[in-house]
Specification:
heterotrimer, A mainly alpha (about 300), B mainly alpha (about 325), C alpha/beta (about 675), A: about 300 residues, mainly alpha, MetI-like fold, 11 helices, about 70% helix, about 0% strand, C: about 675 residues, alpha/beta, Rossmann fold, 3 domains, eight-stranded mixed sheet, about 35% helix
Chain lengths: ~300, ~325, ~675
């Protein structure tokens, strides 16, 4: 009801609009918490190499499995490495890989989805069938296969994750495009004789952008989940690079007497995923999109 | 109506066909064939030749695909590389174990999700909703391996109530399984329930805001009667498909959970076969998991078809 | 004086804004409903009329809450009742007939169950008695084959039938008071008249009190004993229906009545400036101050109270109402429009145009054969002169918008030709048309919410045709945009606004400006005023007429509203099921002799005058497909003469007034029949 009120006169440029969205997101406690967590992790990922108190790969038999103390805040692991150091460094690979992975997913998923929504007909049917087929292979099987054959370098992980998590975006982008092209303003532009490119660029993209961005934000958190699952299974980043999934996997066997080495990375990873999720939720709400009805595919 | 059902089934089969092509082509395109990947550094000379012979890699790819596909249709997946035994024998007990795990999780998860979803929707923004919704967000976002690890740490190690790791042979009986799967079931159904509860919630909220619910209230229909007759049938119908997609997606989570609990199911087989680079087994797994996915979605489609009055009347007219 | 059934006392309802301010959408409303009377509550969208009606059932929409006041039903306050108590009253004492029955009937439950539910809740009848009652009720609301109707699902019924089911459901509990919330809005003209007739019959038959909420004074005039006029959440005028409609003494009501196009009047209705203020935007003074031509300084500072005038039995909220009483007001006037030059050249010709939505079958496509023998639109031939306004009129399914789309090139014609300027054939494929032809024909749509890109500012919206057709840039572009805005009476500051920041009328003005930006020869108007409030509609109609007189544009105007068409058009073409029935100069089409379908349509028009009753001459059956042979109107025609109507396409006959009628009955005979 209120959104209809004619209150603002001033022209808003893009930056102001983005700021407005941020403000709306932060106006609810859950959004504020989410934004804070994400910001904290991003900042930490940038500065952690400079503030880490120990060398993350320094193995020392003298300090094996020490409980938390003033020297080692989160204790040490089975190889005597400082858990605090490894924890604050442990999100860097995950964040980078999934961030760029999400971008790739957004790009190809969004474009293919818009394309399918536009052309419709037989081409659309065929593409969607193939996308469906890809969806029906569990992501973990496909990822594991690729990684085991091509290796676990970031050059492999980023495009592979981007590909597998873009499938869902295709569906969302396609549905959003379908909704938009039925609208009269598209009919109007077509009747005026605008070119297809101009219609896509001016009329369609601005109206499907929000839905795709929200989907992308959501994918990010799921991709993070997938990525750390891979690490956990031993198919992600390779040791001794600090990574939460890997740390949890390594420390799991010893957790009956050295629980600290598993708790710290769990807190790190969980908080980041929850943070991204809350942010994506708040983002969706700020843009007026309901994301809770969508399946995580 | 019958035509519609046949069409859905046909589409599902086409999907499976494409999956088989994708996995087959995928394995072909990726560097190295089944033998070189499996034998790794020993991939030369007689060992390689023997392997190639055994797998029939010396015939053209399309012929191999056709032969493999026709065998698969007859239910024969061929031989595994590592154990050199029929894949069917490897798969059989694993499939059973995973099915037990998954179906128990689903049987607990779906009713729980529906109840939670309805409660949160009807008490929207009130205390029950805020509490349940917060919990669902947490259990939805935290990866299975973390919740599973925490469950083991808290329930098995600190409290000592249940065994933390499943130590049963892969051919264990159903009853042996049941006592061991409590923790894995909790870990799997937590995330699944959370996802579905959220969907049910928003679907119910949408229906509660509809004109016909307002009309029912204005007609004097008592609250709970309205909920059960006017709201739920219309709210749960569209949720069926989404729920199916969620379940199918969570198959990946089952893999991870099985590894954490050392559960002898398909999930661990996935890891084992990939670690061993046993490509024939991986292919078989892909087909099986995809069939489960397609099957679940097909069931959901059919359920929607049966329950939707719009489609029902189509049947009467035609 | 008869007994008061429900009385509303000082009711205010509002919501909390995001900034924590309390904003009221209903302010200090008081009114009484007496036994056996029908009260019409009229107001434009956002006037609070539906909120008031729902509050009278003790129902407050989510997000809203009562600020003060009470709704007394038989001296008990509905707003203070528990939901248990309300369940005993709703459906049994007060029943509701909703606006859009299609959405108000639960989709998964059969019609019979939904009526049975009301019977079970509110009567003591046993199963077999209830079954009998159900078919009795379905019969009463004049639904065909009541026995099978009970076993059908809501979506299997037409809009009019769904509305009838809703009426039957409301009657099940034998209520003392019936609340009707826009019960005929969204229905076709003839269906609307039939439903309204049914409601009037029920009021008389059962003696139930009714509250009839509508934006449509035409419908209100047909049923009401008393009328309450709402504006911006307040009652501004209340009194006996006849007095309110004939001698309105509130400037808003006066303006509203003047802004309604009437069948009996040629020429454009007078418009009111501005639009209704948004809730929360009025701080002091009269809420109608901005739009009132009687306003004084007093009105700006103080808001008038509702004043009772004994001799007129009327309540009015205005300081200056006496001026309206003294002023010899005449509602029967309109703005005459310049008629166009009838000698002008023809600019657009439709010749035997047929359009089909059916896909061509593969083999027929190969053989280049026409497979659809019964296309949606068939044999349309119309010549359109330069500078004239030709209207295409018909109910939903008449193919009027379809024809418009294919003129615009959006739908391929299956047969026939569309010729533009000097008999040049326009390709039916948009992509094959040259840019100048595309520029020359522009479209305006029904709903500006859909036709304006929500992510573009007004400046971006208007710059699109200017850039596309004239390659304008920079200062030149801006100057043109400002000129265009001026043409549609919008200020320069609108440039930076987004559509969501505009009112409905302003949005439609922007859409009009966008069409004119192309300097078109022809503008295709698709129900351009249907989504607008009446007072805004008059303003848009006047604007369109003004622009046409200034620029010599030709309009093809599609509408279902015969009164609007009467007001704006020079020539009218009446369509039924995609076939032309009648075409001619508008003053003649509105006179007899007419095609029987035109006669039916004209009879169903609701005028805001209690003395003009609709004449229902044909059933309101919904036909899904045009008949394969014979006259298109054979299924519903009240003057059908026999087999010839079913087998042969009727010939064109030209009457002495110059209107062409396609009917088997001789035109003189038609004239004498219709006297």
């Amino acid at each position: 009801m209120e959104s209809n009120l004619i209150t603002e006169d001033k022209q808003k440029n893009k930056l102001e609009k983005a700021f407005e969205i941020l403000k709306t997101m932060a106006s609810k406690p859950s959004g504020l918490i989410g934004l804070t967590i994400v910001l904290f992790h991003v900042v930490l990922a940038i500065i952690s190499p400079y503030i880490a108190p120990y060398d993350y790969k320094a193995i020392s038999p003298n300090t094996m499995l020490l409980a938390p103390s003033a020297e080692h805040w989160f204790g040490t692991d089975s190889l005597g490495r400082d858990v605090f150091t490894r924890t604050i460094l442990g999100g860097r690979t995950a964040l980078t890989v999934t961030f760029f992975g999400s971008l790739i997913a957004l790009l190809w998923g969004g474009l293919l989805g818009i394309f399918c929504g536009l052309v419709g007909g037989k081409i659309d049917d065929v593409v969607m069938r193939v996308v469906d087929a890809f969806l029906s292979i569990p992501w973990i099987l496909a990822m594991l296969l690729i990684v085991s054959l091509l290796g676990t370098s970031t050059e492999v992980l980023i495009p592979a994750l981007g590909f597998f998590y873009g499938k869902g975006i295709v569906r969302v982008a396609r549905a959003a495009t379908h909704d938009v092209i039925a609208k009269d303003f598209i009919v109007s532009a077509r009747a005026r004789g605008h070119s297809n490119m101009s219609i896509i660029w001016n009329e369609i993209i601005p109206n499907v952008r929000d839905a795709i961005l929200v989907e992308g934000a959501m994918r990010w958190s799921w991709m993070l989940l997938g990525f750390s699952s891979l690490s956990f299974l031993g198919f992600g980043v390779s040791p001794p690079t600090p990574d939460w999934g890997l740390m949890i996997s390594n420390a799991r066997g010893l957790m009956s007497f050295a629980y600290w080495s598993v708790i710290a990375p769990i807190v790190g990873l969980s908080s980041l995923i929850i943070g991204i999720n809350l942010t994506a939720d708040a983002f969706a709400k700020a843009l007026g999109i309901d994301r809770s009805t969508k399946a995580p595919v | 109506m019958l035509l519609l059902i046949l069409k859905r089934i046909g589409l599902g089969l086409i999907t499976l066909l494409i999956v088989s092509l994708i996995t087959f082509v995928g394995v072909e395109v990726l560097p190295g064939d089944a033998c070189t990947t499996y034998l790794e550094r020993e991939a030369y000379g007689a060992a390689l030749d023997a392997c190639i012979k055994r797998l029939g890699l010396d015939v053209p790819a399309y012929e191999r695909y056709l032969e493999w596909a026709s065998n698969v249709i007859r239910g024969d997946f061929g031989y595994s590389l590592s154990g050199e035994m029929p894949i069917n024998e490897v798969l059989g007990p694993r499939v059973k174990n995973s099915l037990v795990l998954a179906s128990v999780s689903i049987l607990i998860g779906i009713p729980l999700a529906i109840v939670l979803g309805i409660i949160t929707a009807l008490w929207r923004d009130k205390l029950p909703d805020i509490m349940i919704s917060t919990i669902t967000i947490f259990s939805m976002t935290i990866p299975e391996f973390i919740s599973a690890t925490l469950l083991i740490l808290i329930v098995a190690i600190w409290l000592g109530w249940l065994p933390g790791i499943v130590i049963i042979p892969s051919d264990a009986t159903f009853y042996e399984l049941l006592s061991n799967i409590i923790l894995p079931v909790v870990a799997i159904s937590m995330i699944m329930t959370a996802h579905m509860a959220r969907m049910v919630r928003s679907s119910v909220i949408q229906v509660m805001a509809s004109d016909y619910v307002q009309m029912a209230i204005l007609k004097g229909v008592p609250y709970w009667k309205m909920v059960f007759r006017h709201v739920l049938p219309n709210a749960l119908l569209p949720a069926i498909n989404v729920v199916a997609l969620t379940i199918a997606w969570l198959l990946g989570g089952v893999v991870v959970t099985e590894v954490v609990f050392n559960y002898p199911g398909l999930g661990r087989l996935v890891i084992e076969s990939i670690s061993n680079r046993d490509l024939p087994v991986v292919q078989a797994l892909a087909i099986i998991l995809a069939s489960i996915y397609v099957g679940i979605n097909l069931i959901a489609d059919l359920m929607t078809l049966m329950l939707n009055p719009r489609l029902k009347s189509l049947q009467i007219r035609k | 004086m008869s007994e008061i059934i429900e009385s509303v006392k000082n009711l205010s309802i509002g919501f909390n804004s995001q900034k924590g301010k309390q904003i009221s959408i209903l302010r200090n409303v008081s009114t009484n409903i007496k036994k056996g009377e029908t009260v019409g509550i009229v107001g434009e969208s956002g006037s609070g009329k539906s909120t008031l009606a729902l509050a009278m059932m003790g129902y407050i929409k989510q997000g809203l809450f009562p600020l003060k006041g009470e709704c007394l039903f038989k001296s008990e306050d509905l707003l203070k009742m528990s939901s248990r108590q309300l369940e005993k009253i709703r459906g049994r004492k007060i029943a509701m007939i909703p606006q859009n029955a299609g959405q108000a009937l639960t989709p998964n439950l059969k019609i019979g169950y939904q009526i049975d539910e009301a019977l079970r809740l509110h009567t003591d009848l046993n199963k077999s008695e209830r079954d009998k009652k159900i078919s009795e009720l379905l019969n009463k609301v004049r639904l065909p084959s009541p026995e099978t109707m009970a076993f059908r699902y809501p979506h299997e019924l037409s809009g009019g039938q769904q509305q009838r089911v809703a009426v039957a459901m409301a009657l099940a509990g034998k209520p003392d008071l019936l609340l009707l919330d826009e019960p005929t809005t969204g229905l076709d003209v003839t269906t609307q008249a039939h439903v309204l007739e049914l409601l009037r019959f029920i009021a008389k038959d059962t003696g139930t009190s009714m509250i009839y909420v509508s934006h449509d004074l035409g419908a209100i005039a047909q049923v009401s004993d008393r009328i309450v006029v709402m504006y911006a959440g307040e009652i501004v005028l209340e009194g006996p229906a006849r007095k309110i409609l004939k001698e309105p003494i509130h400037p808003y009501t006066y303006g509203l009545l003047k802004s309604i196009p009437k069948l009996s009047l040629a020429g454009l209705p007078a418009s009111m400036p501005g639009s209704q203020p948004q809730p929360g935007s009025i701080n002091e003074g009269c809420s109608f101050y901005d739009r009132c031509n009687l306003a004084t300084d007093n009105c700006k500072k103080n808001s008038p109270d509702l004043e009772h005038i004994k001799e007129l039995d009327t309540n009015v909220r205005c300081f200056n109402y006496k001026e309206l009483i003294n002023q010899n007001n005449n509602l029967q006037t309109s703005i005459t429009k310049k008629s166009n030059n009838s000698e002008a050249n023809e600019v657009l010709k439709l010749k035997d145009v047929s359009i089909s939505y059916a896909k061509q079958k593969f083999f027929d496509q190969l053989l280049n054969k026409i497979s659809d023998q019964n296309p949606t639109v068939k044999d349309i031939s119309i010549d359109i002169k330069k500078g004239e306004t030709i209207a295409l009129v018909g109910e939903s399914g008449s193919g009027k918008s379809t024809i418009l789309k294919s003129i615009a090139g959006l739908l391929e014609t299956k047969d026939g030709q569309i010729k533009f300027e000097n008999d040049r054939i326009l390709s039916s494929d948009l992509k094959m048309r040259n840019p100048n032809d595309l520029r020359a024909i522009q479209l305006i749509f029904q709903n500006p919410d859909e036709s304006l890109n929500p992510n573009h500012t007004v400046e971006q919206i208007l710059s699109q045709p200017l850039k596309l057709y004239f390659n304008l840039l920079g200062k030149e572009l801006k100057k043109n945009i400002i000129d265009l805005l001026k043409k549609v009476r919008l200020g320069e500051f609108y440039m930076s606004r987004y559509p969501r920041q505009l009112s409905g009328g302003e949005k439609q003005r922007v859409a009009v400006a966008r069409a004119f930006a192309a300097k078109p020869d022809i503008i295709l108007c698709d129900e351009v005023t249907s989504a607008l409030d009446v007072s805004v509609q008059a303003a848009v109609l006047n604007l369109l007429q003004q622009l046409k007189e200034d620029l010599g544009t030709t309009y093809v105007f599609v509408s279902h509203d015969l009164a609007v068409v009467r007001a704006i058009s020079d020539r009218v073409a009446v369509l039924y099921q995609g076939r032309l029935c009648e075409i001619g100069p508008s003053q003649n089409v509105y006179k007899f002799p007419s095609h029987p379908y035109t006669e039916v349509l004209l009879g169903a028009v609701l005028e805001p005058d209690p003395d003009i009753k609709p004449k229902l001459v044909a059933e309101d059956i919904v036909e899904e497909k045009p008949p394969e042979k014979g006259c298109s109107f054979q299924g519903r025609c009240p003057r059908k003469i026999g087999d010839i109507c079913n087998s042969e396409v009727p010939p064109w006959q030209i009457g002495e007034n110059g209107n062409a009628i396609r009917c088997h009955i001789n035109i003189e005979e038609l004239a004498s029949l219709q006297q």
